[in-house]
Amino acid sequence: KGINALLQAYMQLAAVDKRLHLVLAGNPGKWVARQRYPNLHLPGQLDHNEIPGLFDALDTGVICIRDNVFGRYCFPQKFHEMVARKLPLVAAAVGEMSTLLANNPQQLYRPDDVEDLKRAICYQLQHRHSLPDEVPTWEVQAERFERVILEVLDR
CA 27 → CA 1, 5, 41, 91, distances in Å? Predict the structure, then answer.
């Protein structure tokens, strides 16, 4: 997922500001758990009902995406969850994230670019810019998908 850049950016930022903490939920990999990072929290795999509480506890969410086939075409579920919780976020400028954050380029960073990720994180820590709560429901998404299918079939 490209968390190497996140870890490097965090270490550089934490060297300047000892108050920073990093939470890596899910399975960040065994090598991360073996490393020594200050204020690193590894809660592991969380139940779906625990995610809102985690997001509410964060100052900034970071969506790491690699610039590969999966990254370019995956559904941005975490983005929509973070927006619904009004969590300020930054995301790699890959695939749908570039479109969703086109009006907020300060929240995008070049994938695997540690300096650009640091810039985006610092922006959010200073400004805490959250996005309007315009998370499409599954019904809205299904209607959009149906319109696309019907357009293709009408051709």
Answer: 11, 16, 12, 19
